[in-house]
Design goal:
The complex is a heterodimer of chains A (113) and B (115).
Chain A (H helix, E strand, L loop, with lengths): L3 E4 L2 E5 L4 E7 L4 E9 L5 E8 L4 E4 L2 E6 L4 E6 L8 E9 L6 E3 L3 E6 L1
Parallel strand pairs in A: 2-11
Antiparallel strand pairs in A: 1-3, 3-8, 4-5, 4-9, 6-7, 7-8, 9-10, 9-11
Chain B lengths: L4 E3 L2 E4 L5 E6 L6 E7 L5 E8 L2 E4 L8 E4 L6 E5 L8 E8 L9 E2 L3 E5 L1
Parallel strand pairs in B: 2-11
Antiparallel strand pairs in B: 1-3, 3-8, 4-5, 4-9, 5-6, 7-8, 9-10, 9-11
The chains are: A mainly beta (113), B mainly beta (115).
Chain lengths: 113, 115
């Protein structure tokens, strides 16, 4: 059974810092990995999608890497801003005929002005 | 092109009542997924549907919960005889292809409170 773990559970940093969020998964047989952002009381916004054959994806100040063999992904946020404050979720689509995403519990990020 | 639309956004039900949650996928998307987010928990997959077919309901409780995605109209997640433990945020996602191959787009969610 696939399990996704995100570390740290919460993070508070001053504005302007670069930061890294970590995600690990137990079964390396994945199709893809997605990073989402969730604001309080809101839905999920997809940030980056990495296919299993890819190593990384970039969008603006965000860079996500994937090491499928070791079961790890990182989300790098450059030059953080207060508007980046949110919960960041990592999710994988696994093989073995399973449908649907398996989510981690998220990292609650606060960027201090 | 509107995103995934869920309604209602907030729903309050008394114990024993029925809750009906609706999800309209993005235009051109024929795959719908329902997830539940319990307080302090991560999102959990419930069910995957295509038009008129339930493909995978492995994450759905065996009793009181049902889902459909008719040929016309939105997908419906139905919870009968709700209990306090059903209080959660329910999210719907849609994709143009089966989720394993493509990005999923999520709605704003329906927050169900059972009193």
């Amino acid at each position: 059974k696939q399990e996704v773990t995100q570390i740290p559970a919460a993070l508070s940093v001053p504005e302007g810092e670069n930061l890294v969020l970590n995600c690990s998964f137990t079964d390396s047989a994945i199709y893809n990995l997605q990073w989402f952002r969730q604001d309080p009381g809101k839905g999920l916004t997809s940030l980056l999608l990495i296919q299993s054959s890819q190593r990384e994806q970039t969008s603006g100040r965000l860079n996500a890497s994937l090491d499928k063999s070791s079961g790890r992904s990182t989300l790098y946020i450059a030059a953080s801003q207060p508007g980046d404050s949110a919960t960041y979720l990592c999710a994988v689509t696994s093989g073995g005929g399973a449908d649907g995403l398996t989510f981690g519990k998220g990292t609650h990020l606060i960027i201090q002005p | 092109n509107a995103g995934v639309m869920q309604n209602p956004r907030h729903l309050v039900r008394r114990r024993g009542q029925e809750a009906r949650l609706r999800c309209s996928p993005m235009k051109g998307h024929s795959h719908v997924y329902w997830y539940r987010q319990l307080p302090e928990e991560g999102l959990k997959f419930m069910v995957y549907l295509q038009k008129e077919n339930i493909i995978d309901e492995s994450g759905m409780p065996k009793e009181r919960f049902s889902a459909e995605f008719p040929k016309e109209g939105p997908s419906i997640l139905r919870i009968q005889q709700v209990v306090r433990g059903d209080s959660a945020a329910y999210f719907c996602a849609s994709s143009p292809l089966r989720e394993v191959n493509t990005e999923a787009f999520f709605g704003q969610g329906t927050r169900l409170t059972v009193v």
